[in-house]
């Protein structure tokens, strides 16, 4: 029995092999909350010429801060509105919101591609607008310092600092969500140790010592969403992140998701998105403005 | 089998029920590192009168920062040397180093009691001096901001920010240690899910599919420390933290450690320290200067 546990632990490590993860556990109003901050990518760019990019329904959030007093920043069109991004603000560009961005010449951008999820794997900003802004000079200064060091550990701490400001207005909602999920703790634990393609309602029902029917009914009534749909969301979030953020082939991604055969991945992904994994990835790499000077943007 | 997993997960949660934990996972020079930052206690005190305290072999580290430009700070005697703590510095008072501290009247102190350990559960500062100092105005400003908010999430992020500076010179040593332990990954995973009083060499040998003798020999040769001694250290670190940081009774601590009977706790703790759990705790509460005005210091 011990050996099975170990083997699962290894899978879990493979599954969650994001380069940088910060897990924050704390108590809010008497309820224990867990936040996972995954940094897929980060960097600091000086944009010497004006550049324009279009990002279609990105699967992760972007943290943006323009460094220095004279940085001209950027203009962004998101949700039909035009916003000027200045150096005083720290910005969160929310996942799933398509946007156009125009970087002005001379802008120095500190950025990170990230996901901030609670222990139910839902993005903290799931219901938030496409663009969030905070203004906190102390954190701006710390972001610039950390990005200058280039050290992953420092950048993770600085990203966590910015995220703790963005998340503050959402803490009460997160607490309520955690309470709703409290009776499904064994399900969440099983989800944590199972690759998403291998999640089965029947096995989750086993850990709850319930029938699949009873679990599905209880979950839908309490959470307001069918369990199967919840599992599909977890699967799809992870698949899209891996397709856009990992350098692996579609076959590699299928293995990381827990598929025994890449054809199952094609089938499942197309059923959920209408696209093949390769089409999905190609669509996100197809920029007219793709340049070698900005490979980290052009790549996604 | 699934049910056993869930039951262990619950134990793990009880075992690690520290109020605030930040887990940082990142890659350093190609090696994946994990750091766990546990905050047992934190606060911000204005000391209106000069105060003197003696701390005997504290089981956790202290993060100290004196806020404001006019704060007179403190004087500390540690390892036979006298140091002045000023407002420009951020200080780490290392665990296990006894010290005397004199807070000058008018000092505003942001503090946290913490432990920073790698995935082998060893303190990052195990071999470091009793007093460490960094000077980084950007982080000082962020610490003061976070402590003013009083929000656990902000304070965790700020403590992680300070720790990422303190830990930078130790990263290469942590990487080497991680490499040394790499062949014992299943042992570390088993330790993570087992309350420390229930750790047995025979069960760890099972997860490695080795005999207890072969595991002990391999561990000692690779790590340079007997496995049994390593397990005792993990047990004792946790026992001492719980005795000094939790408000629970000695019986509560025994349960959290995984003892089936409090008498086993008395026996094991006395064998390892020469003191009973109650004597250990009482010794750390016995300050001549104990006052109600500084309960958080006087308590420990």
Automatic annotation (TrEMBL), chains A, B:
Gene3D superfamilies: Homeodomain-like
Keyword Transcription annotated: yes
GO molecular function list: DNA-binding transcription factor activity; sequence-specific DNA binding
Domain of life: Bacteria
HTH araC/xylS-type domain segment(s): 185-283
Pfam families for the chain: HTH_18
Keywords: DNA-binding, Transcription, Transcription regulation
Protein name: Helix-turn-helix transcriptional regulator
């Amino acid at each position: 029995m011990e050996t099975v546990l170990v083997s699962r632990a290894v899978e879990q490590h493979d599954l969650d092999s994001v380069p940088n993860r910060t897990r924050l556990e704390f108590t809010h109003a008497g309820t224990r909350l867990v936040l996972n901050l995954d940094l897929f990518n980060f960097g600091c760019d000086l944009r010497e010429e004006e550049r324009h990019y279009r990002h279609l329904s990105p699967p992760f959030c972007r943290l943006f801060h323009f460094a220095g007093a004279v940085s001209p920043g950027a203009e962004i069109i998101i949700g039909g509105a035009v916003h000027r991004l200045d150096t005083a603000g720290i910005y969160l560009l929310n996942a799933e919101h398509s946007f156009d961005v125009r970087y002005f010449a001379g802008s120095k951008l500190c950025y990170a591609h990230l996901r901030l999820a609670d222990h139910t794997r839902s993005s903290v900003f799931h219901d938030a607008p496409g663009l969030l802004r905070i203004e906190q000079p102390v954190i701006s200064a710390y972001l610039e310092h950390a990005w200058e060091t280039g050290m992953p550990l420092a950048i993770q701490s600085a990203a966590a600092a910015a995220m703790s400001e963005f998340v503050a207005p959402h803490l009460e909602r997160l607490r309520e969500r955690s309470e709703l999920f409290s009776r499904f703790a064994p399900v969440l634990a099983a989800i944590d140790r199972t690759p998403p393609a291998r999640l089965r309602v029947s096995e989750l029902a086993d850990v709850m010592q319930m029938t699949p029917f009873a679990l599905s009914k209880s979950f839908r009534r309490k959470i307001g969403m069918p369990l199967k749909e919840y599992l599909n969301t977890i699967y799809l979030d992870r698949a899209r992140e891996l397709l856009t953020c990992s350098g692996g082939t579609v076959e590699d991604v299928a293995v990381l998701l827990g598929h025994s055969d890449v054809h199952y991945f094609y089938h499942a992904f197309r059923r959920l998105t209408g696209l093949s994994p390769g089409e999905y990835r190609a669509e996100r790499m197809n920029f007219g403005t793709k340049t070698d000077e900005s490979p980290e943007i052009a790549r996604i």
